[in-house]
Amino acid sequence: MVKSVTPPLHHRVADELRGRISRGQLPVGAPLPSEAQLCEEFGASRGTVRQALAALRNEGLIGGGQGKPPVVRQAAVAQPFETFLSFTRWAREMGREPGQRTVEIARRGASQVAADALGLDEGTPVIEVLRLRLLDGIPTMLERSSFVERVGRLLFDFDPDAGSIYAHLQDCGVDLRAARHTIDAIGANEVDADLLTIAPGAPLLRERRRATDATGARVEYGDDRYRPDLVTFTIDNVQTGRVSPHILKETS
Amino acid sequence: MVKSVTPPLHHRVADELRGRISRGQLPVGAPLPSEAQLCEEFGASRGTVRQALAALRNEGLIGGGQGKPPVVRQAAVAQPFETFLSFTRWAREMGREPGQRTVEIARRGASQVAADALGLDEGTPVIEVLRLRLLDGIPTMLERSSFVERVGRLLFDFDPDAGSIYAHLQDCGVDLRAARHTIDAIGANEVDADLLTIAPGAPLLRERRRATDATGARVEYGDDRYRPDLVTFTIDNVQTGRVSPHILKETS
DNA sequence: CGCGGAAACTTGTCTGAACAAGTGCCGCGA
DNA sequence: TCGCGGCACTTGTTCAGACAAGTTTCCGCG
Question: Least CA distance to A183: which residue of chain B?
Fold first, then answer.
């Protein structure tokens, strides 16, 4: 039984506007309808409409100043967040062909490290996924994920070789909101070396990830190991101005 | 004549709360005062307080769900730009004692890699600096920098063991403005291993840097190699919101 | 003592209103 | 014709109130 409630009005307004922008109905640079017009169109009060506009502003979709109607800024924003979350999407954006092979998916007691990162007791059941990621057929990254049971459960009725785990979770109503990534280097162990077709002990670029949902509850602990000759991380910094540092993964 | 207007109330509320969080007055995990309490404290209406809380929420500073008071998610963070630029300042902010030993400072023809990064011809004179950086006396990072001659020249009337090269350049009117950092992993070579007191071939976390001044001219190419057991990079991502991801270096 | 449920409390959503502040345009006057 | 003032329109800020929905607390009943 799916609980099917109509989403809040300000969400519907925001979604509708997002849709018009992404459909090109509101082209880049075009001014949005005034708040008063939106109020009338959606039968909402101004506060509600402003709430929707604030959301779009946050996403960088619209900009504009006082006295002037808001203006469409850009159609598709590649959130840096996605960069780390969806290997599939990232690869395609780079013009490479993503591939993957699920080595293992299992329900077992959390390891010391994973339990610690998820705030669980060691041995609490979690769902572990071990996937080998390919770029144009070349083994590129090894992904070890531990999901808390509440979320990982959703993965058993899903073919992990089909596509993005995150996209599937999103569809199931899990909304990954924030993540903390820790980047370091580590030597390849026997398993790493075997799957990534490199020598044991070879340096790997490691990204460990702790993802949380909207409530701040920890949902996933991940350990991704990249071949540093194939993937690097890039950060752009600007001292003055308010350009946000951009994080990119790049292939070489 | 400075136009001194009092900022909007919801900004003042948000700033005050941000301050309490970064001062540790509201520790991580602690619940914020309820909206009603904040209304009374600031003499604001609930709408205004909610506007302030919404700002903090999409900065990722607070989280929480309906029915529960919002919870402090993470403390405020340092300026990401400085993080990569000044080892000295970063170390002190971490409460560690920075140290350094200048292994070499020389004027010589640029290597292939450095020339490429600086947009020079191979063999064009550059100033190269090789410094070993210490944390609490422990060799932690090996820094190889190549400065274009115009800037590097300023380094000869400066004691590189005294403190920050960047601070000195800033004093000399060189205005480092932007940088692109590329992060990967690499095995330690003989020199690295010797200076960092690790085994040859051990994995190192490498950050390569291309810094430009205000005019966009390339000024420095750097290759920093960190012991991954001592230093990691951390990136915080929040999905909604236009908030810049924060990049941190952390010691372990 | 334990458990269920009601009550109190908290945040989420929405409305309607008012004033301030910034922008753009139109028309009047020089 | 040109310039400038003012008006109409827009967004920004703030308030007060109402109901919905989720959480916590606590009391009374078994």
Answer: B233
pLDDT score for B82 = 57
Instruction: Tell whether B66 lies on the interface with A, counting CB pairs under 8 A.
Output: no
- Nearest nucleotide to A50, CA against C1' atoms: D11
Q: Specify whether B198 is located in the same domain as B215.
A: yes
B62 lies in the same domain as B106: no
- Domain range for residue B20? 9-72
Quick one: A128 and A191 in the same domain?
A: yes
For the residues A137-142, what does the mean pLDDT come to? Answer: 94
Q: Indicate whether A126 and A222 sit together in one domain.
A: yes
How far CA B133 is from CA of B98, B128, B137, B153, in Å, comes to: 7, 16, 9, 22
Claim to verify: residue A139 and residue A180 sit in the same structural domain: yes
Q: Is the pLDDT of residue A77 over 50?
A: no
Instruction: Say yes or no for a CB contact (<8 Å) between B187 and A203.
Output: yes
Quick check: B241 and A58 CB within 8 A? yes
Q: Does B5 touch chain A (CB under 8 A)?
A: no
Residues of A in contact with B235 (CB under 8 A): 84, 180-181, 183, 247
**In the prediction, which pLDDT does A12 show?**
92
Do B169 and B203 fall within a single domain? Answer: yes
Which residue from B47, B63, B235 is facing A215, i.e. has the nearest CB? B63
Q: Answer yes or no: do A14 and A129 share one domain.
A: no
Q: Tell me, yes or no, whether B1 lies in a domain.
A: no
Burial class (CB in 10 A: 0-12, 13-18, 19+), A112: exposed
Structure token digits, residue A24: 């090109």
Could you tell me which residue, A83 or A246, shows the higher pLDDT? A83
What is the average pLDDT across A128-134? 94
Using the structure, give the distance in angstroms from the CA atom of B60 to the C1' atom of C5, rounded to a whole number: 37
From residue B245, how far is each of A26, A53, A245, B221 by CA, in Å?
Answer: 29, 22, 7, 24
As given in the structure block, the two tokens for residue A96 are 């490479």
H or E element: which one contains B55? Answer: helix B46-58
pLDDT band at residue B242 under the 50/70/90 scheme: very low
CA distance B206 to A203: 11
Determine contact, residues B103/B128, Cβ cutoff 8 Å: no
| Same domain flag for B131 and B224 | yes
Last residue of a domain, one of B25, B48, B72: B72
Report the complex ipTM.
Answer: 0.68
pTM for this prediction: 0.73
Residue A249 pLDDT: 54
